[in-house]
Each structure stands twice: as structure tokens, then as C-alpha cells.
Design brief:
By secondary structure, the protein is mostly helical. It is 81% helix and 0% strand. Bound molecules: protoporphyrin IX containing FE.
């Protein structure tokens, strides 16, 4: 988990400065919480593919809104530490359990970033808007990366444990399987 966080940090350019920018604008950003939480779940509850994630249907909406609200508040408070990152990693595991694909998660991360961009542009001057939006974008891109990798790594490791596979053997078999798949898929886009 630490290594993956470090990779994402270095490659996105996220730093403590981003946390400070979020902290500095936390009151403003938290004025937008209700609107964002509503928009987020309006989308998820009006698309049949994401609706299937909520077995209790609309009855589940208040609970899900509460979860997102707490997450958004923790990001915008800018109090981001090791525990925060472990929690993002854990979200990947929870998402495996409740069948939230990374496609769904990444699509909604993009939506949230677009909503923040619109608000930044309409409420702040150009420099502050750019500063706040890019800080939010870097942090939430790293969050999305951590959730996606948390999902993938936990999925593969759980599968290995459940099936009792040996890592070395899997690696060799995977290499052959990937080669075969590459050959088969190339026909779909090469002339
Ligand atoms: C911006 C992207 C997302 C973030 C940051 C996020 C974050 C979270 C967090 C913090 C939790 C709680 C983990 C815990 O128990 O501590 C969670 C759980 C959950 N999320 Fe997501 N999520 C995202 C996208 C989605 C999407 C797109 C869906 C539905 C299609 C979804 C559905 C759920 C569900 C059903 C749970 C489990 C709730 C439970 O039974 O306790 N999430 N997510």
C-alpha cells in the first residue's frame, strides 16, 4: 500500500501543499457538500447498471449519502494522514464486496472533479480557481488510484488464498495466458 501511494504521489505531483490548499478553502468547499452529494446519487440512482449496487433501492440512499458526505468532508478538511490513505485502500476491498466496479468508481470521480471545477471557476479568481481545483484533482486522482489498486491487489490476493495457488506458478501461467490474449485481441484493432 505504501509503495503504491508513493508511486501515485510522485507521478501526480501531489504534496502536502495540496492538503494545505484544501484546508485553506475547507469552508467554501463544504458549502457545496449537499449539492455534490445530491448530484452524485441522482446519477447513480437513475442508471440501471449502478442501481443494481443498491439492493434496498431508494431506502439505501440516506446511508450512502452519509458515507459520501463523510468522505468529502475528510478530503476537504485537508487532514490527510496515513490513516486516511489506509481507509482509501480499504474502500477498494469494500467495493469488491458490494460489487462496485472501478469503472463506476472512476466515472464518479470524474463527475465530482467536474463539479468542483465548475464551482471553482464560478466563485474564485483565476489563480485561486486553478490552485484549488488542481489540488482537489491531484488528491482525488490519488484516492481513485488507491481505491482501484486496493480493489485489484485485494482481489488477486484473495483469489490466491482461496484457491491455494503458488505465486511463482501463477506468474508463469499468467505470462503464457497474457501472450495468448494479446495475440487474440490484436485482430480487433490491427488491419
Ligand atoms: C468517487 C468515488 C467513490 C468514493 C470516493 C467512494 C468512497 C466510499 C467509502 C469511503 C465507503 C465506505 C467504506 C467504509 O466502510 O469505511 C464506500 C462504500 C461503498 N460505496 Fe463507494 N465510493 C465511490 C464510488 C462509489 C460508487 C460509484 C458506488 C455505486 C455504484 C459506490 C457504492 C458504495 C457502496 C454500496 C458502499 C458500501 C456501503 C456499505 O454497505 O457499508 N461507491 N465508498
Amino acid at each position: 500500500m505504501q509503495e503504491i501511494l508513493k508511486d501515485l504521489q510522485v507521478l501526480t505531483g501531489m504534496s502536502e501543499q495540496d492538503y494545505a490548499v484544501l484546508r485553506q478553502h475547507s469552508t467554501l468547499m463544504q458549502n457545496w457538500t449537499d449539492e455534490f452529494v445530491n448530484a452524485f446519487y441522482d446519477i447513480l440512482f437513475s442508471y440501471d447498471r449502478t442501481l443494481t449496487v443498491f439492493p434496498r433501492g431508494m431506502d439505501e440512499r440516506p446511508d450512502r449519502e452519509k458515507t459520501l458526505r463523510m468522505w468529502y468532508e475528510s478530503v476537504t478538511n485537508g487532514e490527510i494522514d496515513g490513516k486516511f490513505w489506509w481507509h482509501q485502500w480499504y474502500v477498494g476491498l469494500v467495493h469488491i464486496k458490494v460489487k462496485v466496479s472501478n469503472t463506476f468508481m472512476l466515472g464518479m470521480t470524474s463527475r465530482l472533479q467536474q463539479l468542483v471545477l465548475e464551482k471553482c471557476v464560478s466563485t474564485l479568481d483565476k489563480n485561486d480557481a486553478l490552485g484549488l481545483y488542481t489540488a482537489f484533482k491531484r488528491v482525488t486522482d490519488v484516492v481513485a488510484g488507491m481505491i482501484a489498486e486496493g480493489y485489484f491487489v485485494n482481489y488477486v490476493e484473495s483469489l490466491e488464498n482461496v484457491l491455494g495457488f503458488n505465486r511463482g506458478l501463477i506468474d508463469r501461467m499468467m505470462e503464457m495466458e497474457i501472450e495468448n490474449r494479446m495475440q487474440a485481441m490484436q485482430g480487433k484493432f490491427r488491419g
